[in-house]
Amino acid sequence: MTAFPIEEIRARLADRVELAGGQRELSRQIGIAQPVISKVLSGRGDTIPESLINALGYFVQPMCVPALKGMNR
Question: What is the C-alpha to C-alpha distance for residues 52 and 27, in angstroms, rounded to an integer?
Fold first, then answer.
């Protein structure tokens, strides 16, 4: 499994907005409020709601990584 950087998810969201014909139409199609879509696209806030990630066809899976090299020994 590969983790998606936030900027890549934003780019995919922008593509979906364009294909839908605008943020309002995408909002209607996927059931996510238009202000949420706008906030994610503008980069305000450092997280993307899991509901929006799911609506784009992805799922969120928690992942643990060591904070320091050798910490998992």
Answer: 10
User: How many of the other CB atoms lie within 10 Å of CB of 27?
Assistant: 19
Write the CATH number for 12. 1.10.260
What's the domain count of the chain?
1
Whole-structure pTM value: 0.76
> Cα dist. 17→23, 31, 47, 63, 64 in Å?
5, 13, 19, 29, 32
pLDDT at 69 over 90: no
What is the residue range of 50's domain?
1-73
User: Between the CA of residue 35 and those of 11, 12, 31, 41, 44, what are the distances in Å?
Assistant: 17, 17, 12, 10, 11
